[in-house]
């Protein structure tokens, strides 16, 4: 994490205040690199992992560049999973709260009509999985003619899950005059091809693993000494108190016993 400040960038008061209320005091390394370039509307290819603060790295400039008066979506963020789509939508909503930015998430396994109704309202930013986004485009329920920014998040996961063809079909429907940002932890050939085919002289940014290590230091470790027979009750108490959205519970040998999501 750098010791810079979000006030160092050309950000409006509403965005800086939202970041402050989220407790984001200093930009992370990836934010430091990405924000000024994205505000300058250049294409970007970013090698970084979850935990580096990458969502806010693209979320902050997107919220800054959104024109509130425009009712049609100005930014589209593609994610490989609906969990990530929901998370990114929440992050964008939080960052854009004081600017009253409206983000909508569209993903499979949720009624189409509900999303259709939401997309009819003002929606500055749309976050979604490729299949459902394409579905909305093809059925005429997602108008992307006013789009100015595209983010492809976790591109290597998109590739692993077989979504690249759908991503390319979506890109073909977008205005050519736009900024494209691609984030990926690894760069297999399929992801490289995506960059070459659909981006304009992108700037490459690579964030070292030290960044992730810095974020990991913020993880709190707690040790409970407990009798074997009390283990399950303790586990129940801890999960009730901590109330995590998801967690992994390893057994004695370090193998994963449960994954609660
Ligand atoms: P991400 O890599 O986008 O999944 O972000 C990892 C976590 O870091 C999330 O919980 C964010 O809320 C948090 N985060 C992002 N940027 C900052 C920042 N500048 N300061 C503190 N926490 C941050």
Model description:
There is one protein chain. The chain has 261 residues and is α/β, with parallel strands linked by helices. It has two domains: 6-208, P-loop containing nucleotide triphosphate hydrolases (Rossmann fold), CATH 3.40.50; 219-260, no CATH class. The protein is built from eleven helices and nine strands. It has helices spanning 13-21, 29-39, 54-65, 82-95, 112-120, 130-138, 155-160, 164-172, 189-198, 209-217, 231-242; strands at 44-47, 75-78, 103-106, 125-128, 149-152, 179-184, 203-206, 247-250, 256-260. Strands 3-4-2-5-6-1-7 form a seven-stranded parallel β-sheet, with helices on both faces. Strands 8-9 form a two-stranded antiparallel sheet. Strand 8 (247-250) and strand 9 form a beta hairpin. The longest helix is centred in the middle third of the chain and has 14 residues, at 82-95. The radius of gyration is 20 Å and the shape is globular. The protein starts with 12 loop residues before the first helix and ends with a strand. The mean pLDDT is 90. The structure holds adenosine monophosphate.
């Amino acid at each position: 994490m750098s010791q810079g400040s979000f006030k160092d960038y050309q950000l409006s008061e509403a965005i800086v205040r939202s970041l402050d209320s989220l407790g984001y005091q200093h930009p992370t390394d990836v934010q430091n690199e990405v924000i000024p370039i994205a505000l300058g509307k250049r294409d970007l290819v970013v090698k970084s992992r979850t935990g580096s603060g990458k969502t806010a790295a693209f979320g902050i400039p997107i919220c800054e560049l959104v024109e509130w008066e425009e009712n049609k979506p100005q930014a589209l963020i593609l994610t490989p999973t609906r969990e990530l789509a929901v998370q990114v939508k929440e992050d964008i909503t939080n960052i854009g709260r004081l600017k009253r930015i409206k983000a909508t998430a569209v993903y499979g396994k949720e009624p189409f009509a509900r999303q259709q109704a939401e997309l009819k309202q003002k929606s500055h930013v749309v976050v979604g999985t490729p299949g459902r986004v394409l579905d909305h485009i093809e059925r005429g329920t997602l108008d992307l003619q006013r789009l100015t920014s595209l983010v492809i998040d976790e591109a290597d996961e998109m590739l692993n899950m077989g979504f690249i063809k759908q991503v390319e079909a979506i890109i073909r429907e977008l205005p050519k005059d736009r900024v494209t940002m691609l984030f990926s932890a690894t760069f297999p050939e399929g992801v490289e091809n995506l960059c070459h085919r659909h981006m304009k002289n992108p700037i490459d940014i690579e964030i070292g693993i030290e960044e992730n290590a810095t974020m990991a230091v913020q993880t709190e470790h707690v040790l409970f000494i407990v009798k074997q027979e009390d283990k399950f009750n303790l586990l129940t108490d801890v999960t009730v108190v901590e109330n995590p959205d998801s967690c992994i519970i390893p057994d004695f040998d370090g193998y994963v016993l449960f994954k609660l999501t």
